Amino acid sequence: xxxxxxxxxxxxxxxxxxxxxxxxxxxxxxxxxxxxxxxxxxxxxxxxxxxxxxxxxxxxxxxxxxxxxxxxxxxxxxxxxxxxxxxxxxxxxxxxxxxxxxxxxxxxxxxxxxxxxxxxxxxxxxxxxxxxxxxxxxxxxxxxxxxxxxxxxxxxxxxxxxxxxxxxxxxxxxxxxxxxxxxxxxxxxxxxxxxxxxxxxxxxxxxxxxxxxxxxxxxxxxxxxxxxxxxxxxxxxxxxxxxxxxxxxxxxxxxxxxxxxxxxxxxxxxxxxxxx
Length: 276
Fold this sequence. Notes:
The chain is of the alpha/beta class. The chain contains 10 helices and 8 strands. The chain has helices at 14-25, 39-51, 66-80, 102-124, 140-148, 151-158, 164-180, 192-214, 243-246, 248-254; strands at residues 4-8, 30-36, 56-60, 83-88, 128-137, 221-226, 267-269, 272-274. An 8-stranded mixed sheet has the order 3-2-1-4-5-6-7-8, sandwiched between helices. The longest helix has 23 residues, at 102-124. The N and C termini lie far apart (38 Å).
């Protein structure tokens, strides 16, 4: 029950798969749980890691399904007694030429990238061991999108007193405005993906404050990060980074040494804290 364990969501390909491989190659002293919503693709990915001589364990996880997150919680509790590293990598983005109405894109993107990440955290945060590390995958697009928000919305998203419930309400407001077609006149940017990643970044800051208060002295660190522009199915073949290069910053945060006090509650890019 004392064996260390790391969970990587959305890990059957791209950055998630590179993170699983990277943790194994870095000598993570425990099991790395590779999760994916597609069982066949997830098992094949875990087998690839094992064939390279590393130990990866597959577990099915659909982040948009709360019961799926609770199944993973049960598995971790029974087999490891807790959780040492959580990397919330799973997410989606519509292509720029997508034909779905913007209101639909907003609902699906926020449901997956924001609510899905939140549900995984709600299921797994009670299992976090002392000195645990949580990395929520955001994007440089979150900063760009924040700059496109009205001054009023920017102030709300930067407010250190913003609660998780308040943030959830803001995400719901965006979806409702997108479905009405008046999101821009209400001060929102015209990007579902960017707005979802604003949510992920700010959620990380709220979680960090809450854990510092509730578990002072436990040394748990939570951060949001940007992997960069990475050649994946999502970003396309023209991106500047390989998946392995994209995995570097999330891995750096996941492997912060015991006793580290920072970064915590930050937005990190290229292993450097950026102003939010």
